[in-house]
Amino acid sequence: MLIDSHCHINSEDLRTQAAEVVSRAAEAGVEKMIIVGCDLDDSREAVELAHEFNFFASVGIHPHEAKRYTGITEEFYKLIRDERVIAVGEIGLDYHYDLSPRDVQTEIFECQLKFAEENNMPVILHIREAMDDAMKILREHRNLKLLFHCYAGGLKFLDEVLEMGGLCAFGGALTWKGKASDELREVFRRTPNDRILLETDCPYMAPAPLRGKTNEPAFIKFVYERAAQEKNLTLEELETIIEKNFENFFREKI
Ligand SMILES: [Zn+2]
Ligand SMILES: [Zn+2]
User: Fold this and answer.
1) Which ligand is nearest to the CA of 150?
2) pLDDT of residue 39
3) Residue 167 forms part of a structural domain
4) CA proximity to 152, closest of 110, 187, 176, 101
5) Most C-beta atoms within 10 A of its C-beta, which of 23, 51, 53, 219?
């Protein structure tokens, strides 16, 4: 069984053809996925699609969207109680694009960490070029279960992330050519097997043979293949490891 722990089939690019996307995923062996929300409407669609296709959803405000919010609205409290919702996310800090002012990103990030605590939910983190600041905040929330989506903290932060009990999710970048991906592969190899998940982050981040195309959950198989190679595991061994990690991390929710 393949698991895509982070996808956006609720995005504009994919939702109009969600049924086809899901059936191609099933053909590729994908049995579980988390459909991730980036703002209120997007989270609502994630939950709807999760019901329609029997997957999981997460709800949250992406740092890019933080400027449109002053806090968690009542609708988020309704959504978080939905049986298909298993995490708050994706939330965090993004200093690469800086699409929301940094102080606003911080405020919305912090209030969503509290929201996750109140609701006893794991969090799916999006942190880009902001690890120092994000870790400062996360150190104040030791009781939360942390999933570092598209982990980009390098070896520099890996030990602390592991010590906090975090999981690191890796995607298409693991398959790309180039120095940044070489470094990412080293981080991946050094992340213990019981702390990894794999993801597409579709429609973005398509893996190597399809780089530049619209990504979709079926393409997670290319990420699995490269990941197995890097870890010297058979595909079957890796599938078992990922499934166990997923079930263990979300065990109170699934
Ligand atoms: Zn992200
Ligand atoms: Zn995402």
Assistant:
1) 1
2) 98
3) yes
4) 187
5) 219
Cα(17) to centroid(ligand 1), Å? 22
- The CATH number linked to 6 is 3.20.20.140
Q: Nearest Cα to 31, choosing from 51, 8, 55, 47? A: 55
Ligand nearest to the CA of 202: 2
Q: Mind listing the pLDDT tens digit for each residue in 234-245? A: 999 999 999 999
Nearest ligand atom owner, CA of 125: 1
- Ligand (nearest to CA of 148): 1
Q: How far is the CA of 203 from the centre of ligand 1 (A)?
A: 11
What pTM did the predictor assign? 0.97
In a domain, 14, yes or no: yes
* Domain with 196 in it: 2-249
Start-to-end Cα distance in the chain? 16
How far, in Å, from the CA of 47 to the mean position of ligand 1? 18
Instruction: Report, as an integer, the average pLDDT of 21-40.
Output: 98
User: What's the number of domains the chain is made of?
Assistant: 1
59 CA to centre of ligand 2 in angstroms:
11
Nearby residues of 222 by Cβ (< 8 Å), 6 or more positions away? 172, 175, 207, 208, 209, 210
pLDDT in tens, 77-89: 999 999 999 999 9
pLDDT at 254 over 90: no
How many whole angstroms from 4 Cα to the centroid of ligand 2?
12
Ligand located closest to 201 CA:
2
